[in-house]
Amino acid sequence: MAQNTKTAVLVFHPHMEASRINARLMREAMGHDDEGILVRDEYAALRSGQIDIPDEQAFVKGCDRLVWQFPMYWYSCPPLLKEWEDLVLTYGWAYGTHGDALKGKELMLAVSVGSAGENYHHEGEFGYTVDELLAPFKATSNLIGTVYRKPFILTGVSSGMSDQNLEKAAKDYLSRLQDDWPTQ
């Protein structure tokens, strides 16, 4: 990662107090402000009742790299991330005429998936890969002009990921945040 690069980690988990996986990943990323890793728990920030659009726009515009961290719910994201996209990524700011505020920034998803990875393929239980299910985010990235990077995906988190595997995943996540991001 280039010197002085700022990475915004936006965490979208509606029940962080009950989360084992996303809470651990978030804790691993926190405390690295001196390395330019800035973490926001978006549900905690929403306690005021509404998204502060100008603040969110200023925060992400001031960063070089964006991470949307969330658990996969019903093959998609928690509702606040969708609402955040709808309200923050506005026409004229993030896309459309003069909408280039995020153009050229990198975007990476950090997704925790309940079922085992082997269920996510064309012959598997769900008939789709996790990458295919994330296609709307890649389309959003294309629209807003960000460079979509290979997602950080943890599968099988509902089947009792061991503490040892979770610790390894947390270290791998921090390493990914600190390093150059691979392409898709």
Q: Under the CATH scheme, which class?
A: Alpha Beta
Main beta-sheet annotation: 6 strands, parallel
Assigned CATH architecture: 3-Layer(aba) Sandwich
Helix count, DSSP H or I runs of 4 or more residues: 7
Q: Runs with pLDDT <50, length 5+?
A: none
Helix coverage percent: 25-40%
GO molecular function, one term: electron transfer activity
Organism: Bifidobacterium asteroides
Protein name: Flavodoxin-like fold domain-containing protein
Domain Flavodoxin-like fold: 6-177
Give structural notes.
The chain is α/β, with parallel strands linked by helices. The chain has a single domain (7-178), classed as Flavodoxin domain (Rossmann fold, 3-Layer(aba) Sandwich). Helix content is 34%, strand content 16%. The protein contains 7 helices and 6 strands. α1 links the parallel β1 (7-11) and β2 (37-41). α1 crosses α7. The two termini are 17 Å apart. The mean pLDDT is 93.
